[in-house]
Structures are given as C-alpha cells and as structure tokens.
Amino acid sequence: MAGTSTNHQPPTTNHAKGSQLFDPQSKAIGPTDPRLGLRIPIIVLISVLIGARGPNREILKRCLQGKYRPLISNILFFEYEDTCNRKQILESCPLTDWEVRELLDAFYSVCHWVSIHYPWRPDSQDEGDNFLIELALAGNASAVVTNNVGDFRNMDLYFPGLRMVTPDQLLKMTTWG
C-alpha cells in the first residue's frame, strides 16, 4: 500500500462491553478535524431524496460544506447509485431527475475515494458490516455513522480510535472528548 498510512492501532480482542468503539465521548477530536472520515449510510441519501428533514439532511449538508469527509469505495458507489435510482425512491422524491443527479454528483465530489487492500474481517454477523469496517480502516476514518450501532457490539476484533455513532450522536458532538 504505497502512499497509504493510517493512525489506527492493530486490532485487539473485544472482550470489554461498552468499549470506546461504541463511546462517542472517547478520543477527543473535533467534527471539523480533517481526520474525521465517515462512512455515510445509504439512508442519509435516501432520506434527503424523499424530502425528510432531520439529522440525515444535516449530515449531508455538513459533508457538502466540507465539515465531514465521507468515505466511498467502488462497491459503495454502486450501492448508492443502485439504491438512489430505484423507481420507488425516485417516485417519492420531490426533486427532478436532473436535481437528483446534481445532488449525487455534489456528494461524490466531496467523498474521499478509498481502495481496500486488506480484508480485516472483524467477524460481524452481517457481512455488510465487515465491509464498512474495512472501508473505515482503509480510509483512516474516525467514525462509522450508522443507525445500527448494536450490530457492531459483538465483533471479535476491536479497533482503537474507530467509533460507531448514530446520526443524532454525530450531530450532538461539538468535540469528541
């Protein structure tokens, strides 16, 4: 991995319940810190497309303003494209097709594209969660934004410095620590 560096420490076994992996108060880092790489869930984009107000819209706004650095990979790009262009999503969307395309293009333009070179396999019950951790580690992320924090509690590996936070938790943080 020439040219790639991470500040993550090697994983350890996750025996401690309530470890810092799930503690948004751990490891002080401000939300505008350039190290704040985030894996943005597809629900954030869907919520914005169908006109829902709330934390998801604010997260996307902050990404577009450069306050957060969303991570993306080729696999995640195709997931976003497939999901956001589904007929039932577009029919629920108050935006025109052109506006949807512009919004997605604007989002992609602020994303940090990441190549995953090493499969960590933290042994989550959901294979998709394993991919999210790999993307976060490869992109040197500080957090994974998810509505399913509980899905990450029983992984066999623990990654110091990487936190799982809900959209609401992320927005409530002015500094982490």
From TrEMBL:
This is Putative toxin-antitoxin system toxin component, PIN family. Residues 1-17 have a biased composition (Polar residues). Transmembrane segments: none annotated. SUPFAM superfamilies: PIN domain-like. Residues 1-25 are annotated as: Disordered. Residues 44-149 form the PIN domain. It comes from the Bacteria. Pfam families: PIN_3.
